[in-house]
Please model this.
Amino acid sequence: MDTTLITKEKDNNSFGYYLLKAYPQLLGEVELLIEENPEWLSILSEPLQDSEISLGAIEFLGKYFLKEEKPHEVYAELQGIKAGKKKRIIIPASEIEEKDIDWLAKDVLAKGQVHLLVGDPQASKSVFTTDLCARVSTGASIFNETKAEPRNVLIFSAEDDIERVVKPRLRQAKANMNKVFVLDSSEFPELPDDLNQFAKAMAICKPSVMIVDTINAFMGSKVETNSDKSVRSAMKLLKPLAEMYQCAIILVSHLNKSKNSNPLYRVLGSIGYVGLARNVWYIARNEDTGERILSVIKNNNGRLTNWKYKLDVIDDYPVVRFLGSTDELAQDLGSDDDKTVVNECVEDLLQRLEDEGEKEIKALKIYLEAEYSPSAIKRAIKFVTSEKLVNRKQVGKKHYISGRPLNTEPLADNEDDKGGE
Model:
């Protein structure tokens, strides 16, 4: 049953209208309750009393506000809103109960928060999110965390076919199909107008992780995706939904075509997407190795970490093989600028060895870190080593590197210098 029956303007004197005006995150719960128990609609539709208290409304509020005194406080709050008083917007800090961040994966994936995952199409973002959902559904390890209890996950996918792509990927990733819920509709709900559909889906399955892929596909036609104000307005209620269900919501997006060195400004559309998200992940593919790097490029509550994985193909479907943490940065991979930076690092490294001779690799890295990222340095050292441009040796626990002299290898016995012939 649609909550517009109790929220439309002509019914704005009802208890349900003021309840959902003050607590819109309850939209899904209210719709689900009315479907299961239609008799509650009469309580939600009854006029909000000006001074008296509706026992039916108090009983209803008791389902969601569990402290004994809270339903009466909320009802009084709704009466105040009806009388023209605004909902309290400030409280003394002394009244706030401190809470720790509840991580599904430390410094990467947090309950009750909105995340943003970005990358080019070849980064295979949806393969990663499908694997993540499979792991959460079975309680398997994610980002080096120990195994956990199996949890529900919810996937809103606009780009991949559910029957032909999403479910086969889930099967190959050994997902618990009873814990995975997907959008079953040919028409995508749009934000902000169809927020009740997002809320209802979350009310039904109470997900620990929800994927929205891609977020722009679920934006209403009136939303200006390049406008910070418009984007924030459309998505602002995702945050209270994430908090209510303690769900990690992951919004997926593409990169724009800019060459900005700051990866946070390479997200397609408004910076509002980045502003709303508490964690932003960037995935890129290493063209040399085929490995993917996931870098946390924004984290309001923890460290910026980097992770590496490969895609193995099993029965024609890609499967994630996690390789653990890394010093490589996703934002250093995949662009012409990236190749230029690595080449410059190679030139500086060789010049340093030519000027100063043999160097301990650790000291050389410290010198290069003034100009280059750890990822660029690592790739430069790998290149000069694989191309035999340097000599390497180990003395005890220390590793050294030196320039390789040119044209010093003797000719084979049967080879002579033929001069100009």
Summary: The first strand starts at residue 103 and ends at 105.
